Amino acid sequence: MRAIVLHGSPRRGGNSDTIAASFVKGFKERGNVEIIDFVLNDMNIRPCQGCESCMTSQDHKCVIDDDMHQIYSVFEDADVVVWATPMYWGYMTAQMKIALDRMEALAMDPEKYWVGKEFVAILTYRHHYQSTVGFFERVQDYFRFKLNVLAVCTMDTESREDFHVSSKPEMLEEAYQLGIKLGSV
Ligand SMILES: Cc1cc2nc3c(=O)[nH]c(=O)nc-3n(C[C@H](O)[C@H](O)[C@H](O)COP(=O)(O)O)c2cc1C
Which atom of ligand 1 is closest in space to residue 11's alpha carbon? Predict the structure, then answer.
């Protein structure tokens, strides 16, 4: 079993990273698994240039020569893809969106890259996460991945103060249990 973890937050050890870590802990619990982490903020990934080479070329490769190819090279063999991102201005972070746009090169062959994979969307937020879930739900029929959502509010609604998810063990437990479940499929 291989899981790819895409870290979309610029804050290492922040909320989405911490929930992803609980998921990974559970995922590792049973059996022989491989985890490949990509900290998008530390990678050199250019935004899609809309050249459509990936659509029109025979091999559907992206012509931009950058770190995105590290992700492309392991994506096909991943059983699980974790998309861990805070909500920024109503959507995923720019770091995550740039990587997502570059997934266009893998969209040409759903059977090879998407069908049957377990997706885990880890979304941390103060007010709103539905737009990002809406994206995954909207493309799910076509790409036929299995969607699991861990959406975690990181703000106390009464005091309106932010807290770190590490102070909410029940939230970490849910991620851990999902990790166990997907790790033992
Ligand atoms: C620039 C910025 C924009 C944000 N925009 C939103 C937003 O639109 N909706 C929301 O619910 N939370 C928003 N937040 C709050 C974060 O999503 C939230 O604090 C999250 O838990 C941070 O996760 P992290 O620790 O993994 O970075 C924003 C935070 C920042 C820094």
Answer: 27
**Domain 2-183 classified CATH 2.40.160.50?**
no
Kindly indicate the confidence band of residue 185, based on its pLDDT and cuts at 50, 70 and 90: confident
- What own/partner pairs with CB < 8 Å and gap ≥ 24 does 170-177 have? 171/19, 172/18, 172/19, 172/22, 173/22, 174/150, 175/19, 175/20, 175/22, 175/23, 175/26, 175/122, 175/150, 176/22, 176/23, 176/25, 176/26, 177/26
pTM over 0.85: yes
Using the atom order of ligand 1, give the atom closest to the CA of residue 128. 11
- In a mutational test of the pocket of ligand 1, which residue from 88, 127, 167 has the highest number of ligand atoms less than 8 Å from its CB? 88
Is the pLDDT at 122 greater than 90, yes or no?
yes
Distance 116 CA to ligand 1 centre (A): 30
pLDDT, tens digit, 9 for 90 and up, residues 126-157: 999 999 999 999 999 999 999 999 999 999 99
Q: Domain boundaries in the chain? A: 2-183
Angle between the N-to-C axes of helices 169-183 and 15-29, in degrees from 0 to 180, rounded to the nearest 10: 40
Q: What percent of the chain has pLDDT over 70?
A: 100
CA-closest candidate to residue 45, choices 122, 97, 113, 90: 97
